[in-house]
Specification:
Layout: E1 4-5, E2 8-16, E3 27-30, E4 33-41, E5 60-61, H1 63-68, E6 85-91, H2 98-108, E7 113-116, H3 118-122, H4 126-134, E8 138-141, H5 154-172, E9 178-179, H6 188-197, E10 200-202, E11 206-207, H7 216-226, E12 231-236, H8 242-255, E13 259-261, H9 263-267, E14 277-278
Parallel strand pairs: 5-14, 6-7, 6-12, 6-13, 7-8, 9-10, 10-14, 11-12
Antiparallel strand pairs: 1-2, 2-4, 3-4
């Protein structure tokens, strides 16, 4: 499926215990949460709209702005003030294909950032979580049950990332400092809870909208079409078609002169600031 028809683009919505009807009936399951691809009007008819919804709050920052205002020298493999950096990120895992993905990243010598989902993922794949951390990737959070955080009361907002934070810290010995809210939806309540938990909210600049297709070639092409300096790529290591697309994405972006970094490396020598929304 092409992922686009006419003036519409595919989007993912997750609701617990609710099945959304679509014109295609296409859906994908993630634990006990329902991820349904539905079509919404796109801003542009030539290519899929790839950016997350704009957070309804102040404090949204771009990686380059944070980085360029900082003093000192970055630690790590690249200085993104000079290099053409891009961050590869994976949401909602780990899953059955995560070990193969980690093999690919090791082979290609590429670091990545993993926004892990707590219930039925972190608990079911503890060795993958440990391996992500041991192999030098950034361990981050994508909440506990994938509920839309702007729909929750403050206690629920704190509980969603907090439970995943505790679970990953038990497995890795590290406390994650990055969080990606489902659908990129953030507001003042979410930002305040993130600040209390010591978390920055990290969005993305391009995604393959991979819930709507298992076509690895299409996933690869969509990703490459949206790739740019200081970009953050969003993929899912739980959906079929994603992991097979990764080698081609990496090889082509390296050919174009990109350097792969984690999300914290993208803003170095600055550090992600709790409560802020980082969006390329």
């Amino acid at each position: 499926m092409a992922g686009r028809a006419g003036r519409y683009a595919w989007r993912v919505y997750a609701m617990r215990g609710v099945r959304l009807m679509t014109r295609t009936g296409l859906s994908a399951h993630l634990g006990s949460e329902q991820h349904t691809c539905i079509r919404v009007p796109a801003r542009d008819s030539a290519a899929p709209s790839t950016r997350p919804s704009s957070p309804r709050r102040s404090g949204t920052v771009a990686p380059a702005d944070v980085r360029d205002d900082a003093k000192g020298e970055p630690t790590g493999q690249a200085d993104c003030r000079k290099a053409r950096c891009i961050a590869l990120t994976f949401d909602a895992g780990p899953g059955k294909d995560t070990p193969r993905l980690l093999d690919i990243l090791t082979e290609k010598q590429v670091p990545a950032t993993f926004f892990l989902l707590g219930r039925k993922h972190v608990g079911r794949h503890p060795e993958a979580v440990r391996r992500i951390a041991a192999e030098g990737h950034e361990v981050a959070k994508h909440t506990w049950t994938h509920r839309i955080m702007t729909d929750l009361e403050p206690d629920g907002i704190r509980d969603e990332p907090g439970r995943t934070q505790e679970a990953t810290e038990r497995l890795t010995g590290r406390k994650p400092t990055l969080m990606r809210p489902p659908q990129g939806r953030a507001d003042e309540k979410v930002s305040e809870a993130s600040r209390e938990l010591g978390l920055s909210q990290d969005l993305w600049s391009v995604t393959a909208e991979d819930c709507a297709t298992a076509d690895s070639d299409l996933i690869r092409q969509r990703t490459l079409d949206g790739a740019d300096k200081d970009g953050i790529i969003l993929l899912h290591d739980i959906h079929d078609g994603n992991v097979p697309a990764v080698p081609g994405i990496i090889d082509e972006l390296k050919r174009r002169g990109f350097t792969f970094v984690t999300v914290p490396q993208l803003v170095a020598p600055a550090a992600p600031e709790p409560g802020t929304v980082c969006r390329p």
